[in-house]
Structure formats: structure tokens, C-alpha cells
């Protein structure tokens, strides 16, 4: 069975392990050959910031880990426009250049086209 | 109204101290009552704490731990705990306890440790995958 | 459990992964490889160093698919194939090669 799965990552990269657990779930979804899309919204946007120095707090860097996504064929990435704007960020601040920026209305459309949603 | 029978899987991401775990359990009971199939309950993140056999809740509070076990027994529901999430939080079965040379094991009967692939497989074969928590 | 390299005892777990990754060196790699019935050749070392580069770049141990794609990118399409990696590190290249390269044990989930 081959399902369309959208993984929504809404939490900041550090402070708890939710973002890392979302990342692990994304890799597993890709490895098990499902049709995966990833949406970053709310504080989840911060995971994509360039030049994170996570070793300073003895953590793994999301800048590094998320850069591995193309090697797992995870290339359908979506970024919530309002979340970006609310945090004073632009796509230039982020490590992904191939992501699609979506507004809230477009997100409903994105959700409508999925078989399953995994929310973190 | 005729409700089509569907296959459900449940993803529990919050600990038994949260409403989310309790709601997940109630949701499982409700869907089974209505004649749907429950393929698997997967425990991820802090949801893994539902599977410890060392919790001793007060007598006048719902013992969610044993409710999961009853549910599994009565309806042959698979209760799968994410192995990586469990190991890093100190929830082990005998096999992993030996592998990592730890002092004991505390995975409750009726639960099994499994990979995240089990969550993805559940998504692949189920009509509905419902996440509780976060 | 332990392995002995240059008269030093190094702790490994039940599956042969180094407990302390800082102890890795090329002699350790050779010993771990021998326990997997692999004689390291130049072709093996190329993949071992590639894996270490992957870990430095992404801070995770690669699953098979990612290892194949990374190999393809860095060493070209001839080597970026599962069959090539399987010949070098049977029966499970990502796991076996990570163990020899001194990478952390891959998370069981993946």
C-alpha cells in the first residue's frame, strides 16, 4: 500500500525532542516508501534556520540533519507563509531553497489531498 | 444510518498523565463499540510511558496502564511501543535489557517493542490514523 | 564484551558496536571488519571514509537508501548502487559499514 502522508512539524528544534521525533518519523516514512510531504509551521520554522550552533547546548544541529532530507528522497517541503512572517523571517534565512511557500488557504488544500496526517 | 466499517490505527504521543492518552483509550473503545476494526495502537514519544509495568496509580484513579492491557486482550489489539523512544526513556523488555546490560526490564505484558516502521505500516493499511498528543 | 586491538581491550556491545566511539582508529576498523569476515581493501576504506563524511555533514548514521544516494553523489553512479555496497559490506551495508566506521549504532526504529 502506498499512501499520501503529510507530516506537520510545528515545534522549535530544541527545548524538547518533538522536532527530532518528527524528523525520525519523516525518515521512516520515506524508507517505507510512502508518498511523503513535510509542512513546517509555527515554531517548526526555526528548525530550518541556517548556521545553528547546537553543539553549544550538546544537541544535534537541525541545520545538519535536515540537510540530509534530499538523500532520503524527501523533496516535497512546504513552509507556512504566515508563520514565517510572524517570526520576521524570509526564505533566505532558511536552509531549503526548493520549498514551496503556502498560505493558510493553500494549507487546507494541501491537507485535503492527503490520506493521512502525522502531526508533531 | 449505516456507517461503513473502517480500519483504524491510533498513534499515542503523550504520557498517561495527559488527557491525550485517556482520550486515545476512550476513542479506541468507542470505535470498537461501533464495529470498526482497530489494527494497531502505536506509542511514540512520551506515549511510551503507557507501557510501563512499574506504575502504581492511586486506587481511586483510573488505571490506564491495565486498561490498555484489557483492551488488547479483549480485542486482540496490537500495542506497539517505539523501540528507540522506549530505550532512551528507560523502558525495556528482557531482550533489550540484556543487550544494553541494564539492571531490569519494565515493559508491561501485552505490549511489544517495534520500529517506527510499524507506525508507517499502520498508516499504509488503515483507513484512518488518529494521533493523540502534542 | 570486548575486542583486543594493539594489546588494548575495547568494550563493544553484544552486536559488536564500539561502546566508546572516541576509541575508533584504523586498526580498530580492521578488527571489527575481521569479526564481520571482511578484509578491508581500498574500496572498503573509500566507503568507510565516505560514511564518516556523511556523519560529519548530517549528524546521523545513514539508512541504506541515503548511503546509496550519497555514494552516487560523491563517487559517481558506478559505485552509487546497492549491489556495489552489498558486495563490500554484506549482508546489510549501512549497518555493517557504520559499525566498522565507528558511527553510532543506528536507531532501531530505522
Structure in words:
With 120 residues, chain A is of the alpha/beta class. Chain A has a single domain, classed as Hypothetical Protein Ychn, Chain: A (3-Layer(aba) Sandwich). Chain A has helices at residues 18-31, 62-66, 81-86, 104-112, and strands spanning 4-9, 35-40, 77-80, 100-102, 116-119. In chain A, strand 1, helix 1 (18-31) and strand 2 form a beta-alpha-beta unit. With 134 residues, chain B is α/β, with parallel strands linked by helices. Chain B is built from 5 helices and 5 strands. Chain B has helices spanning 19-33, 64-75, 83-89, 94-99, 117-125; strands spanning 7-12, 37-43, 78-82, 111-114, 128-132. The longest helix of chain B is centred in the N-terminal third of the chain and has 15 residues, at 19-33. Chain B is globular, with a radius of gyration of 15 Å. Chain B starts with 6 loop residues before the first strand and ends with a strand. The model of chain B has no long low-confidence stretch (mean pLDDT 95). In chain C, 50% of the residues lie in helices and 7% in strands. Chain C has 5 helices and 2 strands; from the N terminus they run E-E-H-H-H-H-H. Chain C has helices at residues 26-35, 42-58, 64-75, 82-88, 93-101; strands at 2-5, 8-11. Chain C has a two-stranded antiparallel ribbon with strand order 1-2. In chain C, a hairpin with a 2-residue loop joins strand 1 and strand 2 (8-11). Chain C is globular, with a radius of gyration of 13 Å. The mean pLDDT of chain C is 93. Chain A binds chain B through residues 1-3, 5, 11, 17-18, 21, 24-25, 28-29, 31-32, 34, 115-120, and chain B through 11, 13, 44-45, 84-85, 115-117, 119-121, 123-126, 129, 131, 134.
CATH architecture name of chain B: 3-Layer(aba) Sandwich
Shape of chain C: globular
| Order of secondary-structure elements of chain C | EEHHHHH
Question: Would you give the CATH topology of chain B?
Answer: Hypothetical Protein Ychn, Chain: A
**CATH architecture label of the largest domain in chain C:** Orthogonal Bundle
Radius of gyration of chain C: 13 Å
Amino acid at each position: 500500500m502506498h499512501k499520501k502522508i503529510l507530516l506537520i512539524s510545528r515545534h522549535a528544534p530544541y527545548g524538547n525532542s518533538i522536532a527530532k521525533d518528527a524528523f525520525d518519523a519523516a525518515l521512516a516514512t520515506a524508507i517505507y516508501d510512502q508518498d511523503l510531504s513535510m509542512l513546517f509551521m509555527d515554531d517548526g520554522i526555526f528548525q530550518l534556520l541556517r548556521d545553528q550552533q547546537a553543539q553549544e547546548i550538546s544537541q544535534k544541529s537541525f541545520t545538519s540533519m535536515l540537510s540530509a532530507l534530499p538523500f532520503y528522497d524527501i523533496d516535497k517541503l512546504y513552509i507556512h507563509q504566515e508563520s514565517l512572517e510572524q517570526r520576521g523571517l524570509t526564505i533566505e534565512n532558511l536552509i531549503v531553497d526548493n520549498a514551496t511557500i503556502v498560505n493558510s488557504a493553500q494549507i487546507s488544500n494541501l491537507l485535503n489531498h492527503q490520506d493521512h496526517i502525522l502531526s508533531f | 444510518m449505516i456507517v461503513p466499517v473502517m480500519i483504524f490505527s491510533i498513534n499515542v504521543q503523550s504520557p498517561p498523565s495527559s488527557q491525550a492518552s485517556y482520550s486515545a483509550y476512550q476513542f479506541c473503545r468507542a470505535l470498537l463499540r461501533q464495529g470498526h476494526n482497530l489494527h494497531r495502537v502505536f506509542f511514540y514519544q512520551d506515549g511510551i510511558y503507557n507501557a510501563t509495568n512499574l506504575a502504581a496509580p492511586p486506587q481511586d484513579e483510573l488505571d490506564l496502564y491495565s486498561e490498555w492491557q484489557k483492551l488488547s486482550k479483549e480485542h486482540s489489539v496490537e500495542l506497539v511501543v517505539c523501540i528507540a523512544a522506549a530505550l532512551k526513556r528507560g523502558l525495556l523488555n528482557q531482550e533489550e535489557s540484556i543487550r544494553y546490560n541494564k539492571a531490569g526490564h519494565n515493559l508491561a505484558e501485552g505490549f511489544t517493542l517495534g520500529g517506527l516502521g510499524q507506525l508507517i505500516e499502520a498508516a499504509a493499511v488503515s483507513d484512518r490514523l488518529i494521533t493523540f498528543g502534542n | 564484551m570486548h575486542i583486543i586491538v594493539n594489546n588494548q581491550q575495547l568494550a563493544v556491545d553484544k552486536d559488536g558496536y564500539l561502546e566508546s566511539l572516541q576509541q575508533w582508529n584504523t586498526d580498530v576498523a580492521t578488527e571489527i571488519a575481521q569479526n564481520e569476515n571482511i578484509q578491508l581493501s581500498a574500496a572498503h576504506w573509500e566507503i568507510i571514509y565516505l560514511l564518516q563524511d556523511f556523519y560529519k555533514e548530517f549528524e546521523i548514521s545513514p539508512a541504506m537508501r541515503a548511503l546509496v544516494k550519497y555514494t552516487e553523489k560523491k563517487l559517481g553512479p558506478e559505485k552509487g548502487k546497492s549491489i556495489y555496497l552489498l558486495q563490500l559490506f554484506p549482508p546489510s551495508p549501512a549497518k555493517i559499514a557504520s559499525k566498522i566506521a565507528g558511527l553510532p549504532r543506528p536507531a532501531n526504529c530505522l
